[in-house]
Design goal:
Strand content: under 5%
Low-confidence stretches: none
Order of helices and strands: HHHHH
Number of strands: 0
Distance between the termini: 21 Å
Helix content: over 70%
Structural class: mainly alpha
Length: about 80
């Protein structure tokens, strides 16, 4: 957790890069599987990013807005923008 907190921006950008260039299987393995973590030496950083995104959405949209945000037509674009910010 301390690594993820100290390297938030690098982790976000690393995920964004992999999202643009890797297969879904490779994304899962590197970012969500206990067997991943080669990029930063820590596995399951995707869950940390998911929580960061959700907390960001709560601050922007409120709790209920964050819960239903995935239905927004531009949700994927907004997530990609958040990842690269």
């Amino acid at each position: 957790m301390s690594f993820a907190e100290a390297n938030k921006q690098d982790v976000k950008l690393g995920f964004a890069k992999d999202l643009a260039t890797c297969t879904p299987q490779d994304i899962y393995r590197e970012w969500f599987s206990i067997n991943g973590g080669e990029k930063f030496g820590h596995s399951r950083l995707g869950y940390f990013l998911g929580d960061m995104l959700f907390q960001h959405q709560i601050s922007q949209l409120g709790e209920m807005g964050a819960i239903v945000a995935w239905k927004d037509q531009h949700f994927e674009e907004k997530v990609n923008s958040w990842l690269c910010y």
